[in-house]
Automatic annotation (TrEMBL):
<dbReference type="GO" id="GO:0005886">
    <property type="term" value="C:plasma membrane"/>
</dbReference>
<dbReference type="InterPro" id="IPR050882">
    <property type="entry name" value="Prepilin_peptidase/N-MTase"/>
</dbReference>
<keyword id="KW-0472">Membrane</keyword>
<protein>
    <recommendedName>
        <fullName>Prepilin leader peptidase/N-methyltransferase</fullName>
        <ecNumber>2.1.1.-</ecNumber>
        <ecNumber>3.4.23.43</ecNumber>
    </recommendedName>
</protein>
<feature type="transmembrane region" description="Helical">
    <location>
        <begin position="102"/>
        <end position="121"/>
    </location>
</feature>
<dbReference type="InterPro" id="IPR000045">
    <property type="entry name" value="Prepilin_IV_endopep_pep"/>
</dbReference>
<keyword id="KW-0812">Transmembrane</keyword>
<feature type="transmembrane region" description="Helical">
    <location>
        <begin position="78"/>
        <end position="96"/>
    </location>
</feature>
<keyword id="KW-0511">Multifunctional enzyme</keyword>
<dbReference type="GO" id="GO:0008168">
    <property type="term" value="F:methyltransferase activity"/>
</dbReference>
<feature type="transmembrane region" description="Helical">
    <location>
        <begin position="158"/>
        <end position="177"/>
    </location>
</feature>
<feature type="transmembrane region" description="Helical">
    <location>
        <begin position="239"/>
        <end position="258"/>
    </location>
</feature>
<dbReference type="InterPro" id="IPR014032">
    <property type="entry name" value="Peptidase_A24A_bac"/>
</dbReference>
<comment type="function">
    <text>Plays an essential role in type IV pili and type II pseudopili formation by proteolytically removing the leader sequence from substrate proteins and subsequently monomethylating the alpha-amino group of the newly exposed N-terminal phenylalanine.</text>
</comment>
<keyword id="KW-1133">Transmembrane helix</keyword>
<dbReference type="GO" id="GO:0004190">
    <property type="term" value="F:aspartic-type endopeptidase activity"/>
</dbReference>
<keyword id="KW-1003">Cell membrane</keyword>
């Protein structure tokens, strides 16, 4: 129980930091030189006033101030506590899945953190930064050096095979349809997942992520009335959710066992 509380605490802190990464990394990569992940200090996106420590306590500050800035009273996006809660949820479910194997849990925590970051950046910018996908792939291979989720050979071969296969598929579909079928960032993200969990997860992740993305598109078009024709569709959230369903299995969807990875 104590370790679970530690997981919750650490996850909220990490989730709070991820909010900074999600907001600032795309700006840094676009060439902005006046900001970094540590500068300037946290401030209200509406009035620009610096936030004190009591204003940035993960989740609790948002609830205490009822989703408003303590200085100007402007509404703060629900996404900030959502990211923090999502990291906590994935971490707790991961511990329930892999307990008492600390090594596998740490691996799951790492890929969860990367996946949340990639997903929200993709939602914002419709791009997945190479600075996230390539390190995730390399870390996955290194992680599987020591009795990880799959063998080292399977990790390396799966990543290479998935990358080449999806690149070929993308090239053929682009030639036939005269438009991009799957983005380069998505291909690298799939390859990184293959490096972590092997080739066996990819069919499920591709099918499920495609299905969930199509459902999301249908809901947005029918309920919100948005015209999405010609727009880039963020695929990373669907990929991340499908990956989580595959790995967590029964702990993510009660009474339905999907996961095939055994700790």
């Amino acid at each position: 129980m104590f370790f679970l509380l530690v997981i919750v605490f650490v996850s909220t802190v990490v989730g709070s930091f991820l909010n900074v990464v999600i907001c600032r990394l795309p700006l840094i990569l676009s060439g902005r030189t006046d900001i970094s992940l540590s500068f300037p200090s946290s401030h209200c996106p509406l009035c620009g006033n610096s936030l004190k420590k009591r204003h940035i306590i993960p989740v609790l500050s948002y609830l205490y101030y009822k989703g408003k800035c303590a200085w100007c009273g402007g509404c703060i996006s629900l996404r900030y506590p959502l990211v923090e809660i999502l990291v906590v949820l994935l971490s707790v479910l991961g511990w329930l899945r892999f307990c008492p194997d600390y090594y596998l849990f740490i691996g799951w925590f790492i890929i969860s953190v990367f996946s949340v970051t990639v997903s929200f950046i993709d939602l914002d910018t419709k791009k997945i930064p190479d600075v996230l996908t390539w390190p995730l792939l390399i870390i996955g291979i290194v992680f599987n050096l020591n009795s990880g989720f799959v063998s080292l050979d399977e990790s390396v071969c799966s990543a290479i095979f998935v990358f080449i296969l999806l690149q070929l598929f993308s090239s053929v579909m682009s030639w036939v349809c005269k438009k991009t079928a799957i983005g380069g960032g998505d291909i690298k993200f799939f390859s990184a997942i293959a490096a972590w969990f092997g080739i066996s997860c990819i069919p499920f992740v591709i099918f499920s992520s495609s299905l969930m993305t199509l459902i999301a598109i249908f809901i947005v078009k029918s309920k919100c009335g948005y015209n999405l024709s010609g727009m880039k569709i963020p695929f990373a959230p669907g990929i991340s959710l499908a990956m989580a369903l595959y790995v967590l299995g029964v702990y993510a969807v009660p009474f339905i066992y999907i996961g095939t990875i055994q700790p």
